[in-house]
User: Fold these one by one.
Assistant:
Number 1:
Amino acid sequence: MDARGSTTSAPPWRRALFRPVSPGQWVADAALGALFLLGAVVFLPVADGFWGGGSLAVVVLMTAALMLSRCSPPLALAVAWAGALFQMGTGQMPMVANLAVFVVLFATAAYGSRLVFWAGFASAFAGALCIALYLFVVAPYFGGDFFSLSVGSGAEMREAVFGAVLVFVSMLFSFLLAWTFGALFRVVVRGRETRRAQVLAEERAAAEQERGRIARDMHDVVAHSLAVVVAQADGARYAASADPEAATQALATISQTARSALSDVRMLLTQLRHRQAEGPQPTIADLEQLYAHVRAAGVDLRVTVDPAPPGEPPAAVQLAVYRILQEATTNALRHGDGGPVDVTLAWLPASVVLSVRNGRGPVLPVLPARPADPGPIAGDGPAASGPRPAAAPRAASGDGRAASADPAARVSVLHGPPAASAGHGLIGMRERAELVGGHLDAGPHGRHWLVQATLPVAAGA
């Protein structure tokens, strides 16, 4: 049983009859019922022609209907009808206890199921008709001081008919008014519930988007930094004996790259813990540092910016440009053929067009690993899912770039797109472009791999 008093294992008939209500609502309904019972008993009719015991029974039935109206609208409607029929069957006149009928009609419209909702609507018509017929046909035989439709002259008959119609219309209006208030209350409550569900769905969607954004940032930071670290570590490994200075420079680059990546990861983790904490994001002013990292990993990176930015681009566009270039150059480092990588940036008045072009890398033949030198492959290249080929090491040159130490050992076989392991990066780049209203294409272009994106500057503002 939950906090509202409902049971998930209750039989269907019980779930159809009773609504889950809180203990506080039970207490409020019981207190209201006690006050109503006290007032109805005080104003019990005691005039001649009325059956005292029957009046008390009607009061009890109407009080029970009122107390059940919130937790069980169908049962309350049935009890109210039972009390009304008993009242008319014993020839009793209207009393204070009959006011409970309005509360019951309100409850059928506010809390009832679809069937109970329309049963309350029909009860308003049936109840008004029964009251009119009872007062002008049945009550006179019990001594009631009302016009009779069955006796009297023609003028009296007309007056009686007019009175019956007037009673029917007035009671129908009163009953429908109570039912309509209940229907309006139902609409308001359901509107609030719908709004609450919409807000919850929006919060979940925003949280999902935030997780996706942080996942993209984490991928961009970690993939780029680790690719540079692995390339530098391989170069330093093979250059340690031949060129200690180059090895020292490679280790310095590894240290700087790792520290920068650690700082970025800490910022992302802070954003995960505190959603309001938005740390500084990369901008186009940080591109030179990005280019330096890529060049330090041994990539011949050639950058062309023409024309230059006309002003200060929107922050979202700057972040998208940085992350797309970061991912594209990382893919060129991990999956390229080791040749030049061309980066082009064209800042137009309404958009920025960027492209990254690199040679498509070779698929190395599957060769038995040499016991003396297993030749680990940097990154997760095309052969990552199968047996690892023996890779030729990269030696660090004087300027920190890695070059092949044994070109003859590499068999170049041009292949198509980068390995499937880079799929998340391509998806992330495309999503970043779409977030600022742009688009991105990536695929083979002749003997090269081309990533090209167009980002509208105005859309990113």
Number 2:
Amino acid sequence: MEQESIVHHQENTRNPEYNAGQIHGIGVWNAFSLEQVTLEFGNVLENSHIAAEPILHTPPRPVNSQAAMRARVHCYVTNQLSRALRTAFNFFGPNDHPHLTTVQFDVGSLARTPRRFTPTLAVFSAAMPDTVRPNRVPGLIKSSAQWSSGMIKNPLETVHITTFAKVNFDMRQHQTRYSFILTDRELVAVRRLDGYGNLELSHPVPWTAHGTADHPRMTILLALWYICLLAADEQGWRLA
């Protein structure tokens, strides 16, 4: 996926606060990879126990609405990811990753909501009150019928562009550089490069991906765990 220039946009009429013309470039976030996760956090992954993913053993819940998708996230992601984050922060010693602050993953309303625009999901500092703590990773839930990574192949696809305009708007509202789009088929992590609508996207991570200690793979839970730890970095998550 090369950096691409987005031109000749159709207007997004769903929300006047953001539109397709605000997205100027989309590239690949190559550093969002299993190799990079292992390089940065391999010690905690190798030497601490994180509960197994129930998604490997339980048939996925059917998804036919946004409410059903939120239920899937709550069932398969939220509790598992919360335990994995607690394990990581408890594992880190005083000299390990000294710039990280403890963060939590939950629904978007548990973080500050500027101008009442509330993202679906949030990553926030556990030590701050919900009325003031920024959403460091405003996450967007979509159904695969609404959006898929396959749309990236068509840079002029209106739904594709306006989805990233929404994500970019949320990141700007919360002055962060990280976000993600999660559907019933896949996750795509998003990094904002600047204030001019230039974004990078990870390679899609399917719900069906799973790994073992001997044969690790990037999974939905590992990808979310990694982006939470990136957002925990007090020196790296903010982007005005």
